[in-house]
Amino acid sequence: MKWAGALSTEPSLEGAIAEVVAMAQQRLAGARADVGFVFVSSAFASEYGRVMPLAVGQAAGVP
User: Fold this and answer.
1) How far apart are CA 9 and CA 13, in angstroms?
2) Where do the domains of the chain lie?
3) What are 29-58's pLDDT values in tens digits?
4) Which of 13, 22, 23, 60 has the fewest CB atoms within 10 Å, measured from its CB?
5) In whole angstroms, what is the distance from residue 42 CA to residue 47 CA?
6) pTM
7) Cα angle vertex 24, ends 19, 25, to 5°?
8) CA distances in angstroms from 14 to 17, 33, 35, listed in the order given
């Protein structure tokens, strides 16, 4: 079993999600992702409704 974790300090939600998805892809090195867990800072509380659509959009190409 292979797993990958990533953390972003990007100030924008879009940037943070893009960064962690890219990091996870790199760390998985081609392995298939079966599940993803997202933990979001309360700093983005006003944007919580956008988290999943952005994450799904970014991860759409993840093997």
Assistant:
1) 10
2) 13-59
3) 988 888 889 999 999 999 999 999 999 998
4) 60
5) 9
6) 0.83
7) 100
8) 5, 21, 20
